[in-house]
Amino acid sequence: MAKGDPGAAARSRRAAPRSKRAAAAGEPELVQLLTPEGERIESALGPDGTEYRVDFTDEEYRGLYRDLVLVRKLDAEATALQRQGELGLWASLLGQEAAQVGSGRALRPQDMAFPTYREHGVLYCRGIDPIMPLGLFRGVDQGGWDPNEFKFNMYTIVIGAQTLHATGYAMGVAMDGKTGGDDGEAVIAYFGDGATSQGDVNESFVWASVFNAPLVFFCQNNQYAISEPLERQTRVPLYRRAGGFGFPGVRVDGNDVLASYAVTRHALDNARHGQGPSLIEAYTYRMGAHTTSDDPTRYRIASEVEAWQAKDPIARMKAFLTKQQIADESFFAEVDEQARTESVHLRERVLAMPNPEPVTMFDHVYPNGSSELDEQRAQFSKYMESFEGSAH
Amino acid sequence: MATETLTLGKALNTGLRKALENDPKVVIMGEDVGKLGGVFRITDGLQKDFGDQRVIDTPLAESGIIGTAVGLAIRGFRPVCEIQFDGFVYPAYDQIVSQVAKMHYRSQGKVRIPMVIRIPYGGGIGAVEHHSESPEAYFAHTAGLKVVTCANPQDAYTMIQQAIASDDPIVFLEPKRRYWEKGPVELDAPLADAYPLHASRVARPGTDATVLAYGPMVRTALDAATAAAEDGRELEVIDLRTLSPLDLTAAYESVRRTGRCVVVHEAPGNLGLGSEIAARITEECFYSLESPVLRVTGFDTPYPAARVEEEYLPDLDRVLDAVDRTFGW
């Protein structure tokens, strides 16, 4: 499992893994444990000398592969549902599966996550029914799972706002005395490269730092904020911003599920042990559009997309499992079949989602209600009832 | 029952202390609220007695104060945030309007944000720009927030505790120029028996015209009523106390008797609370009105330089002038 696992050395095997190295060829300062060709790297060094490694059982490797495939398939189904008019909008995670599954599986049950609106893979890892965000994008509700039940906050559409919520929550964890041991709680805040320009994100860096909050900032740098490339947000690699705020930063290959897991697990464990915040920049690529309303051909060239296609997170995992004989064709076929079944099931349930009763728009505005709103609701109900039995 | 004479500021301080004593989940956070006790000393002595985990000096970032308070609330705390001055709340506006106000609605009731946002507001203290504004309409216009304001020490003491005990997110506006005015405060009366938070109250009964005011303008309206009485005209003054939701029950009853109504606030008139109140009173009391509802407000300018604020702010004479006009219609 994560770095420091006593059995790690004994269980690392096969394929004569390359020894540790600081960065993958051609990539700047990138922690990588699985190359795009599916070669395992035994361990990798972060910029501060931290050594990252994983040592999963075969079952665990296969589990990560299954997660990646399922998450991609369900996401593709949601995109299709939008194209067919069944969702108003969809923000696809295509290309970012490894960053999300790696970090999502690195969370321990007691850890709390604060997502953006694209963390469908993390949501899946937290055990939330994948139909939940589709209610939001279909427009039948506002995505109302119980954040405290699943330790996964509601999606946040306003860019970067959730990083402050995560910081406050993490301050609360420390105030509750829930850090300092293996059973300590940690918090993870998801955001993107565009969000790093937001005041709220920079304020959350300041706050997390001075209050030593048990928090991991997990930035999926997918290279674009809708149409704007990374160069419009920053002149330095994003992970290096952490230094100026007084905590460590690391850049990980976000298309490598193993490295994403290792780096996140390490950062979360540091946080839960009371060692404060850190920043992870998961270097990845948004293969699809920003949302279904976007047309990426207007601002990026095909060759760039093709270059990232060659770094696909699922293809490299499949190559690794095949080469190492951890999985065979029957396994891959079984996973594909499961993905197909679950996506069909998802589609059926989305189509069956009822529209809410109009009068429910008045529900839950205030925990204690409001006399004014009660009056409006009564007037509206009466107005609606006036149509009953009419020909309209 | 212990009744003490306190300033409005000290009454708030005492109410905050009680809230900290009664619920370990209450935390106070803001700029300079700790050692300094706040620039108006409203949190004076609280960090010393409750520690820096309960009374938190924050970095100088208003969005950060409110945004982290949202996270603390999700975690189960009851944050009481101080915004140092009215004109400094705007960096936090997004967090207040898009996050604090909507969290309960979006989660279909699963997430509560029992937060109080304390803001010293209004003019009359000779301050430089951004220190004298009345931003209540911005918040009263936002569904999901409640907005209240106190006008005397007793209400300050009681209402701050009620706001903290409420699960609704509440913007609590403090009339900063009245911080030093004194009045009797019953300290031991149980909160459960107190006058409700979201209810207006008749501050002075009268028969000839109704004057509606809130926060710093209640004192002005009462002074106007005293002056009017000397001329033989009895004004009924109603302290609105709750700005969202509005409670106009007493106002309707009053206007049906008097037939005349003047609304007073410091904030600019255009689309201010007075506009909404005038519309509702017209809808409810149309056949009782002897004249249109008139508004006495700040002007539609930025808050002016301090040497002319006396002319900008509604005062006794402008209130009486409006009352006269309702009689001359």
TrEMBL record, chain A:
Source taxon at top rank: Bacteria
Pfam families: E1_dh
Cofactor: thiamine diphosphate
Residue intervals of the Dehydrogenase E1 component domain: 68-347
Residues covered by region (Disordered): 1-28
Keyword annotations: Oxidoreductase, Pyruvate, Thiamine pyrophosphate
Annotated Basic residues bias: 11-21
Stored Gene3D superfamilies: 3.40.50.970
NCBIfam families per record: PDH_E1_alph_x (TIGR03181)
Protein name per the record: Pyruvate dehydrogenase (Acetyl-transferring) E1 component subunit alpha
Gene (UniProt): pdhA
UniProtKB/TrEMBL annotation, chain B:
UniProt cross-references to SUPFAM superfamilies, sorted A to Z: Thiamin diphosphate-binding fold (THDP-binding), TK C-terminal domain-like
Domain Transketolase-like pyrimidine-binding: 6-181
Keyword line: Oxidoreductase, Thiamine pyrophosphate
Cofactor entry: thiamine diphosphate
Gene3D superfamilies per UniProt: 3.40.50.920, 3.40.50.970
Superkingdom: Bacteria
Protein name: Alpha-ketoacid dehydrogenase subunit beta
Organism expressing this protein natively: Micromonospora solifontis
